[in-house]
């Protein structure tokens, strides 16, 4: 099983330490940036090849996430934020099924924490910019048209739900799903290796079953990888929309 506290590759013992997981983040984000630079550097009216793939991917995020939740005007306004989150989560997740990488760097808390903080700061900024600090926080935590005594209960619940649980659940959901998927893939492939090469005679049938399960779970993990990127971007859009309409709480 891959080590989630691997030794440093560069700058060991400093705040800028780079280990295997950090290197994977840098590589995958670099490849993502390179893909879009190559795809969109000389755009044609009728897209072909890699430009077509990039535009289809961007249109998916724009139509099915940003505009679906925020509407056309606000969806286009926040498309850079939402598409960045979607593609970074997708790219850093997909290393978990690439040979010789075999692990998602989102299986450790740092990257999900950064992505959740990015979403958190965005929806706070949107609400505060539109309503002002005090009105935004009041609109977010004070439920209208309820008996005054209930505010003693509802205000703490709304505060925790809006300003603590939102980023926390974004972070933990991504990390937990990618960590669980990595562990299961390691178990399936590890047991296949054991039955084929170490367990002795008459165990190859178990190795075949383990290998088949590993391959099947790899395809399932590809679906999870996409869904985690989709859900993260979708919830970010929902939180931005909630901030835009905080006064209709």
TrEMBL record:
Q: Which GO terms describe its molecular function?
A: proton-transporting ATP synthase activity, rotational mechanism
What does the record say about its membrane topology?
Answer: Multi-pass membrane protein
Record localization: Cell membrane; Membrane
On whether Iron-sulfur is a keyword of this UniProt record, the answer is no
Keyword tags: ATP synthesis, Cell membrane, CF(0), Hydrogen ion transport, Ion transport, Membrane, Transmembrane, Transmembrane helix, Transport
Q: Which residues form a coiled coil?
A: none
Cellular component terms per the entry's GO annotation: plasma membrane; proton-transporting ATP synthase complex
Would the keyword Ion transport be found if you checked this record's keyword annotation?
Answer: yes
Residue ranges spanning the membrane: these are 20-40, 78-103, 109-128, 149-168, 174-197, 204-231
Which protein family is it in? Belongs to the ATPase A chain family.
Describe its function. Key component of the proton channel; it plays a direct role in the translocation of protons across the membrane.
Question: What is the name of the protein in this document?
Answer: ATP synthase subunit a
Q: Which organism is it from?
A: Rhodococcus triatomae
In the UniProt record, the gene name given for this protein reads atpB
């Amino acid at each position: 099983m891959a080590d989630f506290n691997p030794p440093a590759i560069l700058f060991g013992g400093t705040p800028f330490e780079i280990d295997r997981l950090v290197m994977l983040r840098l590589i995958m984000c670099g490849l993502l940036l390179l893909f879009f630079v190559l795809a969109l550097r000389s755009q044609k009216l009728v897209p072909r090849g890699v430009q077509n793939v990039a535009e289809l991917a961007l249109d998916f995020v724009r139509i099915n996430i940003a505009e679906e939740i925020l509407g056309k005007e606000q969806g286009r306004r926040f498309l850079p934020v939402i598409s960045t989150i979607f593609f970074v989560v997708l790219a850093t997740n997909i290393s978990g099924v690439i040979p010789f990488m075999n692990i998602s760097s989102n299986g450790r808390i740092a990257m999900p924490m950064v992505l959740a903080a990015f979403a958190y700061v965005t929806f706070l900024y949107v609400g505060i910019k539109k309503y002002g600090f005090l009105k935004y926080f009041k609109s977010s935590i004070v439920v209208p048209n309820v008996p005054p005594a209930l505010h003693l209960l509802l205000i703490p619940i709304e505060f925790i739900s809006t300003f603590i649980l939102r980023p926390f659940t974004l972070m933990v959901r991504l990390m937990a799903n990618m960590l669980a998927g990595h562990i299961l893939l390691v178990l399936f492939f590890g047991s296949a290796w054991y039955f084929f090469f170490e367990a002795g005679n008459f165990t190859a049938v178990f190795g075949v079953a383990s290998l088949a399960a590993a391959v099947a779970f790899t395809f399932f993990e590809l679906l999870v990888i996409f869904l985690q990127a989709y859900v993260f971007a979708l919830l970010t859009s929902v939180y931005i929309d909630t901030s835009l309409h905080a006064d209709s709480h």
